Amino acid sequence: MRAMVGRLAGMLLALLLGSGLGSDPAAAQSKITIAVGGGACLCYLPTVLARQLGEFDKAGLAVELVDLKGGSDALRAVLGGSADVVSGYFDHCVNLAAKKQELRAFVVYDRYPGLVLVVSPSHNGEIKSIKDLAGKKVGVSAPGSSTDFFLKFLLKKNGLDPAGTSVIGVGLGATAVAAMEQGQIDAAVMLDPSVTVLQGSHPDLRILSDTRTQKDTLDMFGGEYPGGALYSTTAWVAAHDKEVQGLTNAILNTLAWIHSHSAEEIMEKMPPEIVGKNKELYLAALKNTIPMYSETGRMDPKGADAVLAVFSEGSPEVAKANIDVTKTYTNQFVEQAKKTTGMNAK
Questions:
Q1: Looking at residues 58-71, what average pLDDT do you find?
Q2: What is the DSSP string of 23-89?
Q3: Domain assignment of residue 238, given as a range
């Protein structure tokens, strides 16, 4: 009798484990690796904050964030199969479409790109305009990243041949600040908090171009220009409906949290290693950046068109490719979140 009870107990345990009811809840979560194009950058804060707030867990996702040097490295991780999703700039989706590689953004967290072209403090006297960058060394996060695209666009817009300027990868955080302060480069395309950190040490810092605000972005591109988004290959998005919806919900909840809390409260949630030692400068940069974060998660079709227009102007390959930009993003998961949870996705 005791043996039969033992066998029944064992069978019941096996059934429970097989159904997931008797296992650790985390084991039932979908595992997803997100490659981030520079986690310390405030442009990517919503992805990191979503983890800090537990939003991925609430969506039933076991998410691992892999911090990489720049957006191009994050993109390579997904194309190479070592990550599932990129947290990076939407413009890669447009650029890769010209190479017949199909990528699709499914939730946007930056309304503006936040890219800033800054002169190295030791070169203020000789570089007073973008035209003065001819033949100079200019830092970007990584060659082929959005910072690099932005630089080439600005050079061409100002009548310069991008090939005449040396592009050097310096990362986005402390390495970029150090390269600027040590005069290793003449200028750089940077993002906050690095720009604000430099301004803290060099109040006369010369800024040649700034897209941290709506006005600057409209002046530069003629319309809103989406920055950071979650995206993956079109095939992965199509095959992982549940996971994509979960990621979208997590980012939307995080954006809502951002816009209903103070900069101080947001900073308090961020990992100490990202905030750094100078909390005052980080806080100042964060206050500058909050308006940049989307309130809806939706891709503005006009914004996507603006990205295509910029790349068509700077890249003959993109201009000739007859890209259907509507295939590089979808708002269906944001709309679904609105239907099922009442989230604001206007």
A1: 91
A2: S-GGGGSEEEEEEES-TTSGGGHHHHHHHHTTHHHHTTEEEEEEE-SSHHHHHHHHHTTS-SEEEEE
A3: 29-112+225-341
- 171-205: burial string, b at 16+ Cβ within 10 Å, e else: bbbeebbebbeeeebbbbbbbbbbbbbbbeebeeb
Q: How do residues 75-131 score in pLDDT, each as one tens digit?
A: 999 999 999 999 999 999 999 999 999 999 999 999 999 999 999 999 998 999 999
What are the C-alpha distances in Å from 291 to residues 108, 168, 212, 255, 314? 14, 30, 9, 11, 28
> SS3 for 106?
strand
Question: Residue 318 and residue 303: Cα distance in Å, rounded?
Answer: 17
Query: Is residue 138 one of the residues assigned to a domain?
Result: yes
Q: Which of 151, 124, 146 is nearest to 69 (CA)?
A: 146
Q: In the structure encoding, which two tokens stand for residue 136, read together?
A: 């100079």
Residue 29 has what pLDDT?
Answer: 79
Tell me the pairing of strands 103-108 and 166-169.
unpaired
> Domain check: are 206 and 252 in the same one?
no
Rounded to whole angstroms, what are the CA distances from 89 to 43, 100, 134, 138, 320? 9, 18, 26, 20, 22
The pLDDT tens digits of the residues spanning 276-289 come to 888 999 999 999 89
Question: What's the confidence (pLDDT) of residue 241?
Answer: 97
Q: What's 199's domain CATH number?
A: 3.40.190.10
pLDDT at 342: 65
| Model pLDDT for residues 187-234, shown as the tens digit of each residue | 999 999 999 989 989 999 999 999 988 888 888 888 789 999 999 999
What's the order of all strands across the beta sheet hosting 61-67?
61-67, 30-36, 85-89, 228-233, 103-108
Q: How far is CA 69 from CA 147, 173, 257, in A?
A: 12, 9, 27
Q: How many CA atoms lie within 13 A of 238 on its CB side?
A: 7
Cα–Cα distance between 98 and 304 in angstroms, integer?
15
